[in-house]
Amino acid sequence: MKKTTLVIMAAGMGSRFGGPKQIAPVGPCGEKIIDYSVFDAIRAGFNEVIFVLSDAIEKDFKECIGDKVSKHIPVKYAIQRLSDLPNGYSVPEGRTKPWGTGQAVLICKDLIDAPFTVINADDFYGRHGFEMLHDFLVNIQESERYKIAMAGYHLCNTITDKGSVSRGICKVSDDGKLLSITERTKIYTKDDGIYFSEDACEEKLADNAVTSMNCWAFDHRVLPEFEKEFVRFLENLGDNPLKAEFFLPSVVNDLVAADKAEVSVRITPDKWYGLTYAADREDVVKALAQLTKEGVYPENLWNA
Fold this sequence. Notes:
Structural class: alpha/beta
Strand content: 25-35%
Radius of gyration: 19 Å
Number of domains: 1
Distance between the termini: 24 Å
Shape: globular
CATH architecture: Alpha-Beta Complex
Number of strands: 13
CATH class: Alpha Beta
Largest sheet: 11 strands, mixed
Helix content: 25-40%
CATH topology: Spore Coat Polysaccharide Biosynthesis Protein SpsA, Chain A
Order of helices and strands: EHEHEHEEHEEEEEEHHEEH
């Protein structure tokens, strides 16, 4: 069986949620969202997991999640630190904010030796995305351009009514290739639909707009490009050195724009659930209870 790796970005503390949402129980037997992601990944055929953590949550995370998961699939850990920078670069004075999801992938470069998928720790993606991306990974063929895939969600399936959210709105070609991603940082619902606002302007979005939820599949040979992109990012911090972030979708956007990568968009019918806000937890608990009742998941994931 071809080796495939799942990278789970779990370093963020979840400021809007009010704590370490990665370890908030949501399943019938106290399972966390990460448990469902790993369970779905194993079902899809993944055979290794790398957790990206921060120093602040490493101990609790291993005790609550890692030690249990490691009984079912091989586990590795990578610690994301602000000081993990290329030679010749240093942390700007006063900066405390992490460098972002692009760096989270980059720090795994010495641990990854196979095609891999990347996800957020606090997002429930549903089983179909893992199945589609795993199928993509095991069929990657080396070519002039790097092969990447993205699980695309319809925007209406990714919204919470508890507050605004950030989403990557995608432009996709007729043959299913990603053309670009535009990050919208304030998306919210109103009585007549979904909107985003920016620079005091409000615009309506299509309910079925293809949306990136940071669920990606990569040929591992692309990782040196992440290093180049991170250096380019650091060279262009501009007037925002304390808060600028090296976003994973931005790396993909740049590779596509430079014709270095081809991104296949695989649309999943599943509904996303997440813990953006503390009030979201009740909705996630209800959704997973219903999926359990329907037989999509066993009542106790790890003792089924």
